[in-house]
Protein backbone atom coordinates (compact mmCIF):
# COMPACT_ATOMS: atom_id res chain seq x y z
CA UNK A 1 0.00 0.00 0.00
CA UNK A 2 2.93 2.37 0.56
CA UNK A 3 3.88 2.32 -3.12
CA UNK A 4 0.24 2.84 -4.02
CA UNK A 5 0.12 5.82 -1.67
CA UNK A 6 3.17 7.36 -3.34
CA UNK A 7 1.66 6.77 -6.77
CA UNK A 8 -1.68 8.31 -5.81
CA UNK A 9 -0.08 11.40 -4.25
CA UNK A 10 2.15 11.71 -7.31
CA UNK A 11 -0.88 11.48 -9.60
CA UNK A 12 -2.72 14.22 -7.69
CA UNK A 13 0.26 16.59 -7.70
CA UNK A 14 0.96 15.89 -11.36
CA UNK A 15 -2.65 16.66 -12.30
CA UNK A 16 -2.44 19.91 -10.35
CA UNK A 17 0.77 20.79 -12.18
CA UNK A 18 -0.65 19.96 -15.62
CA UNK A 19 -4.29 20.98 -15.26
CA UNK A 20 -4.51 23.42 -12.36
CA UNK A 21 -7.99 24.21 -11.06
CA UNK A 22 -10.85 22.47 -12.88
CA UNK A 23 -13.53 24.90 -14.14
CA UNK A 24 -16.18 25.77 -11.56
CA UNK A 25 -18.86 23.89 -13.45
CA UNK A 26 -16.87 20.67 -12.99
CA UNK A 27 -15.28 21.39 -9.61
CA UNK A 28 -16.67 19.46 -6.61
CA UNK A 29 -15.58 22.24 -4.24
CA UNK A 30 -17.70 24.69 -6.23
CA UNK A 31 -20.60 22.23 -6.00
CA UNK A 32 -20.10 22.17 -2.24
CA UNK A 33 -20.14 25.95 -2.18
CA UNK A 34 -23.53 25.93 -3.91
CA UNK A 35 -24.76 23.47 -1.29
CA UNK A 36 -23.55 25.71 1.55
CA UNK A 37 -24.83 29.02 0.14
CA UNK A 38 -28.52 28.47 1.09
CA UNK A 39 -27.42 27.63 4.65
CA UNK A 40 -25.95 31.11 5.08
CA UNK A 41 -29.07 32.74 6.48
CA UNK A 42 -30.86 33.65 9.68
CA UNK A 43 -32.39 30.43 11.00
CA UNK A 44 -33.91 31.78 14.22
CA UNK A 45 -34.16 35.15 15.94
CA UNK A 46 -31.84 34.42 18.88
CA UNK A 47 -28.07 34.38 18.63
CA UNK A 48 -27.96 31.18 20.68
CA UNK A 49 -30.33 29.53 18.22
CA UNK A 50 -28.15 30.67 15.34
CA UNK A 51 -25.11 29.13 17.01
CA UNK A 52 -26.95 25.86 17.54
CA UNK A 53 -27.99 25.82 13.89
CA UNK A 54 -24.37 26.49 12.99
CA UNK A 55 -23.25 23.57 15.13
CA UNK A 56 -25.53 21.25 13.16
CA UNK A 57 -24.23 22.68 9.88
CA UNK A 58 -20.60 22.15 10.93
CA UNK A 59 -21.41 18.61 12.05
CA UNK A 60 -23.33 17.48 8.96
CA UNK A 61 -22.12 19.39 5.89
CA UNK A 62 -18.49 18.13 5.78
CA UNK A 63 -19.84 14.58 5.91
CA UNK A 64 -21.46 15.10 2.50
CA UNK A 65 -18.20 15.41 0.48
CA UNK A 66 -16.54 12.84 2.77
CA UNK A 67 -19.25 10.26 2.08
CA UNK A 68 -19.25 10.99 -1.65
CA UNK A 69 -15.46 10.75 -1.96
CA UNK A 70 -15.09 7.69 0.24
CA UNK A 71 -17.99 5.97 -1.48
CA UNK A 72 -16.56 6.68 -4.94
CA UNK A 73 -13.18 5.20 -4.07
CA UNK A 74 -14.76 2.24 -2.27
CA UNK A 75 -17.03 1.32 -5.20
CA UNK A 76 -14.33 1.77 -7.84
CA UNK A 77 -11.90 -0.28 -5.75
CA UNK A 78 -14.36 -3.18 -5.86
CA UNK A 79 -14.37 -2.93 -9.65
CA UNK A 80 -10.57 -2.73 -9.78
CA UNK A 81 -7.87 -1.72 -7.27
CA UNK A 82 -6.21 0.23 -10.08
CA UNK A 83 -9.38 2.17 -10.85
CA UNK A 84 -9.87 2.76 -7.13
CA UNK A 85 -6.37 4.22 -6.88
CA UNK A 86 -7.11 6.50 -9.85
CA UNK A 87 -10.31 7.65 -8.15
CA UNK A 88 -8.40 8.36 -4.93
CA UNK A 89 -5.88 10.39 -6.91
CA UNK A 90 -8.68 12.41 -8.48
CA UNK A 91 -10.20 13.09 -5.06
CA UNK A 92 -6.86 14.31 -3.70
CA UNK A 93 -6.39 16.41 -6.84
CA UNK A 94 -9.72 18.26 -6.49
CA UNK A 95 -9.18 18.82 -2.76
CA UNK A 96 -5.77 20.45 -3.27
CA UNK A 97 -4.69 23.60 -5.04
CA UNK A 98 -1.13 24.71 -5.70
CA UNK A 99 -0.61 25.75 -9.32
CA UNK A 100 -3.46 28.28 -9.30
CA UNK A 101 -2.18 29.76 -6.02
CA UNK A 102 1.34 30.24 -7.36
CA UNK A 103 0.14 31.58 -10.72
CA UNK A 104 -2.22 34.10 -9.13
CA UNK A 105 0.47 35.26 -6.71
CA UNK A 106 2.88 35.69 -9.59
CA UNK A 107 0.26 37.59 -11.61
CA UNK A 108 -0.32 40.05 -8.76
CA UNK A 109 3.40 40.61 -8.19
CA UNK A 110 4.02 41.07 -11.92
CA UNK A 111 1.19 43.60 -12.17
CA UNK A 112 2.78 45.72 -9.44
CA UNK A 113 6.09 45.51 -11.28
CA UNK A 114 4.38 46.86 -14.41
CA UNK A 115 2.68 49.61 -12.35
CA UNK A 116 -0.67 48.14 -13.38
CA UNK A 117 -2.36 48.64 -10.02
CA UNK A 118 -5.85 48.21 -11.45
CA UNK A 119 -5.01 44.65 -12.51
CA UNK A 120 -3.13 43.97 -9.28
CA UNK A 121 -6.09 45.11 -7.16
CA UNK A 122 -8.51 43.09 -9.25
CA UNK A 123 -6.46 39.88 -9.26
CA UNK A 124 -5.56 39.95 -5.57
CA UNK A 125 -9.25 39.59 -4.73
CA UNK A 126 -8.77 35.92 -5.54
CA UNK A 127 -6.24 35.74 -2.69
CA UNK A 128 -7.44 38.10 0.07
CA UNK A 129 -10.74 39.38 1.39
CA UNK A 130 -9.54 42.83 2.48
CA UNK A 131 -10.34 46.16 0.82
CA UNK A 132 -7.57 46.66 -1.74
CA UNK A 133 -8.68 50.02 -3.16
CA UNK A 134 -6.25 52.08 -1.04
CA UNK A 135 -3.34 49.65 -0.79
CA UNK A 136 0.07 50.70 -2.07
CA UNK A 137 1.95 48.41 -4.50
CA UNK A 138 4.09 47.12 -1.61
CA UNK A 139 0.98 46.44 0.51
CA UNK A 140 -0.58 44.58 -2.41
CA UNK A 141 2.54 42.44 -2.69
CA UNK A 142 2.40 41.87 1.06
CA UNK A 143 -1.17 40.59 0.74
CA UNK A 144 -0.16 38.25 -2.07
CA UNK A 145 2.84 36.87 -0.18
CA UNK A 146 0.83 36.39 3.04
CA UNK A 147 -1.88 34.55 1.14
CA UNK A 148 0.64 32.32 -0.63
CA UNK A 149 1.93 31.11 2.73
CA UNK A 150 -1.47 30.76 4.38
CA UNK A 151 -3.13 29.08 1.41
CA UNK A 152 -0.31 26.56 1.09
CA UNK A 153 -1.56 25.26 4.43
CA UNK A 154 -5.25 25.46 3.51
CA UNK A 155 -4.98 24.40 -0.11
CA UNK A 156 -2.44 21.60 0.02
CA UNK A 157 -1.04 20.51 3.38
CA UNK A 158 -4.39 20.30 5.19
CA UNK A 159 -5.74 17.59 2.89
CA UNK A 160 -2.43 15.95 1.99
CA UNK A 161 -1.52 15.06 5.59
CA UNK A 162 -4.67 13.10 6.53
CA UNK A 163 -4.65 11.44 3.13
CA UNK A 164 -1.07 10.24 3.64
CA UNK A 165 -1.91 9.16 7.17
CA UNK A 166 -4.80 6.91 6.11
CA UNK A 167 -3.89 5.83 2.57
CA UNK A 168 -1.60 2.94 3.60
CA UNK A 169 -4.53 1.54 5.58
CA UNK A 170 -7.52 2.40 3.38
CA UNK A 171 -7.75 4.52 0.24
CA UNK A 172 -11.51 5.11 0.70
CA UNK A 173 -10.88 6.38 4.24
CA UNK A 174 -8.02 8.59 2.98
CA UNK A 175 -10.22 10.09 0.27
CA UNK A 176 -13.04 10.64 2.76
CA UNK A 177 -10.68 12.38 5.20
CA UNK A 178 -9.29 14.71 2.52
CA UNK A 179 -12.81 15.60 1.35
CA UNK A 180 -13.98 16.12 4.93
CA UNK A 181 -11.15 18.57 5.62
CA UNK A 182 -11.91 20.42 2.39
CA UNK A 183 -15.55 20.59 3.49
CA UNK A 184 -14.51 22.12 6.82
CA UNK A 185 -12.25 24.65 5.06
CA UNK A 186 -15.01 25.61 2.62
CA UNK A 187 -17.54 26.06 5.41
CA UNK A 188 -15.15 28.32 7.29
CA UNK A 189 -14.40 30.43 4.21
CA UNK A 190 -18.11 30.99 3.60
CA UNK A 191 -19.58 31.16 7.11
CA UNK A 192 -16.74 31.64 9.58
CA UNK A 193 -17.04 35.37 10.21
CA UNK A 194 -17.67 37.15 13.55
CA UNK A 195 -20.78 38.74 12.05
CA UNK A 196 -22.31 35.31 11.43
CA UNK A 197 -23.21 33.46 14.65
CA UNK A 198 -24.25 30.44 12.57
CA UNK A 199 -20.64 30.21 11.37
CA UNK A 200 -19.00 30.13 14.81
CA UNK A 201 -18.92 26.33 15.01
CA UNK A 202 -17.48 26.10 11.48
CA UNK A 203 -14.74 28.59 12.39
CA UNK A 204 -13.85 26.74 15.60
CA UNK A 205 -13.78 23.41 13.81
CA UNK A 206 -11.52 24.85 11.13
CA UNK A 207 -9.19 26.22 13.83
CA UNK A 208 -8.92 22.73 15.29
CA UNK A 209 -8.42 21.00 11.94
CA UNK A 210 -5.79 23.50 10.78
CA UNK A 211 -3.67 23.49 13.94
CA UNK A 212 -1.21 20.84 12.74
CA UNK A 213 -1.20 21.64 8.98
CA UNK A 214 -0.37 25.30 9.67
CA UNK A 215 2.66 24.36 11.73
CA UNK A 216 3.81 21.66 9.33
CA UNK A 217 3.55 24.26 6.57
CA UNK A 218 5.71 26.64 8.59
CA UNK A 219 8.35 23.93 8.95
CA UNK A 220 8.18 23.20 5.20
CA UNK A 221 8.61 26.91 4.38
CA UNK A 222 11.63 27.18 6.68
CA UNK A 223 13.23 24.12 5.09
CA UNK A 224 12.40 25.30 1.57
CA UNK A 225 13.99 28.65 2.31
CA UNK A 226 17.11 26.98 3.75
CA UNK A 227 16.54 28.90 6.97
CA UNK A 228 15.71 26.44 9.71
CA UNK A 229 15.83 29.13 12.40
CA UNK A 230 13.07 31.12 10.67
CA UNK A 231 10.38 29.17 12.44
CA UNK A 232 11.93 30.07 15.80
CA UNK A 233 11.99 33.76 14.90
CA UNK A 234 8.44 33.47 13.59
CA UNK A 235 7.17 32.47 17.05
CA UNK A 236 7.29 36.14 18.05
CA UNK A 237 4.92 37.14 15.24
CA UNK A 238 2.72 34.09 14.70
CA UNK A 239 0.27 35.11 17.42
CA UNK A 240 -0.45 38.55 15.94
CA UNK A 241 -3.03 37.54 13.28
CA UNK A 242 -6.51 36.83 14.75
CA UNK A 243 -6.41 33.23 13.53
CA UNK A 244 -4.56 30.84 15.87
CA UNK A 245 -3.06 29.12 12.83
CA UNK A 246 -2.56 31.38 9.81
CA UNK A 247 0.15 33.39 11.55
CA UNK A 248 2.58 30.47 11.51
CA UNK A 249 3.10 30.05 7.75
CA UNK A 250 2.82 33.82 7.16
CA UNK A 251 5.31 34.77 9.87
CA UNK A 252 7.73 32.03 8.84
CA UNK A 253 7.60 33.16 5.22
CA UNK A 254 8.18 36.76 6.35
CA UNK A 255 11.28 35.65 8.27
CA UNK A 256 12.60 33.49 5.44
CA UNK A 257 12.24 36.37 2.96
CA UNK A 258 13.34 39.02 5.51
CA UNK A 259 10.29 41.14 4.69
CA UNK A 260 7.53 42.84 6.63
CA UNK A 261 4.02 41.52 5.97
CA UNK A 262 1.03 43.56 7.03
CA UNK A 263 -2.74 43.71 6.94
CA UNK A 264 -3.38 47.36 7.78
CA UNK A 265 -5.20 47.76 11.06
CA UNK A 266 -5.09 44.02 11.84
CA UNK A 267 -1.50 42.77 12.14
CA UNK A 268 2.12 43.58 11.31
CA UNK A 269 4.71 40.80 11.01
CA UNK A 270 8.51 41.11 11.13
CA UNK A 271 8.27 44.87 11.59
CA UNK A 272 12.01 45.54 11.49
CA UNK A 273 12.07 44.65 7.77
CA UNK A 274 10.67 46.46 4.73
CA UNK A 275 7.53 45.55 2.81
CA UNK A 276 8.13 43.12 -0.10
CA UNK A 277 9.78 44.34 -3.27
CA UNK A 278 8.95 42.79 -6.63
CA UNK A 279 12.02 40.55 -6.25
CA UNK A 280 10.79 39.48 -2.82
CA UNK A 281 7.40 38.60 -4.27
CA UNK A 282 9.01 36.53 -7.01
CA UNK A 283 11.16 34.74 -4.45
CA UNK A 284 8.07 34.05 -2.35
CA UNK A 285 6.53 32.14 -5.26
CA UNK A 286 9.70 30.03 -5.54
CA UNK A 287 9.91 29.35 -1.80
CA UNK A 288 6.23 28.39 -1.52
CA UNK A 289 6.57 26.08 -4.53
CA UNK A 290 9.57 24.40 -2.93
CA UNK A 291 7.72 24.21 0.40
CA UNK A 292 4.94 22.30 -1.36
CA UNK A 293 7.50 19.71 -2.48
CA UNK A 294 8.91 19.53 1.05
CA UNK A 295 5.39 19.06 2.46
CA UNK A 296 4.71 16.27 -0.03
CA UNK A 297 7.95 14.53 0.97
CA UNK A 298 7.03 14.89 4.64
CA UNK A 299 3.62 13.36 3.90
CA UNK A 300 5.22 10.43 2.08
CA UNK A 301 7.67 9.95 4.96
CA UNK A 302 4.72 9.92 7.36
CA UNK A 303 2.96 7.28 5.27
CA UNK A 304 6.14 5.21 5.12
CA UNK A 305 6.73 5.35 8.85
CA UNK A 306 3.17 4.27 9.54
CA UNK A 307 3.56 1.38 7.10
CA UNK A 308 6.69 0.24 8.94
CA UNK A 309 4.97 0.54 12.33
CA UNK A 310 2.10 -1.59 11.07
CA UNK A 311 4.42 -4.45 10.07
From TrEMBL:
Superkingdom of source: Archaea
GO biological process, one term: cobalamin biosynthetic process
Protein's UniProt name: Probable cobalamin biosynthesis protein CobD
TM stretches of this protein: 52-75, 82-102, 284-306
Gene: cobD
Keyword Cell membrane in annotation: yes
Keyword terms of this UniProt record: Cell membrane, Cobalamin biosynthesis, Membrane, Transmembrane, Transmembrane helix
Family assignment from sequence similarity: Belongs to the CobD/CbiB family.
Pathway: Cofactor biosynthesis; adenosylcobalamin biosynthesis
A GO MF term: threonine-phosphate decarboxylase activity
One Pfam family of this chain: CobD_Cbib
Entry's localization field: Cell membrane
One Gene Ontology CC term in the entry: plasma membrane
Function: Converts cobyric acid to cobinamide by the addition of aminopropanol on the F carboxylic group.
Topology of the protein relative to the lipid bilayer: Multi-pass membrane protein
Amino acid sequence: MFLTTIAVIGLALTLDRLVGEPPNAAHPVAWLGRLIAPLDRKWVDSERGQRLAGFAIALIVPLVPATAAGGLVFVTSIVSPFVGALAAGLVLFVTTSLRSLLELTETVVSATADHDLETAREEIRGLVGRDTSTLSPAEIRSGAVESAGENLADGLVATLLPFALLAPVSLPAAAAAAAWVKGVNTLDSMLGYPSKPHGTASARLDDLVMWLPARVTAVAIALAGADSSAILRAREWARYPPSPNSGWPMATLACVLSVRLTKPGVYDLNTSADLPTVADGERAVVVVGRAAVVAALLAVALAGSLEVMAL
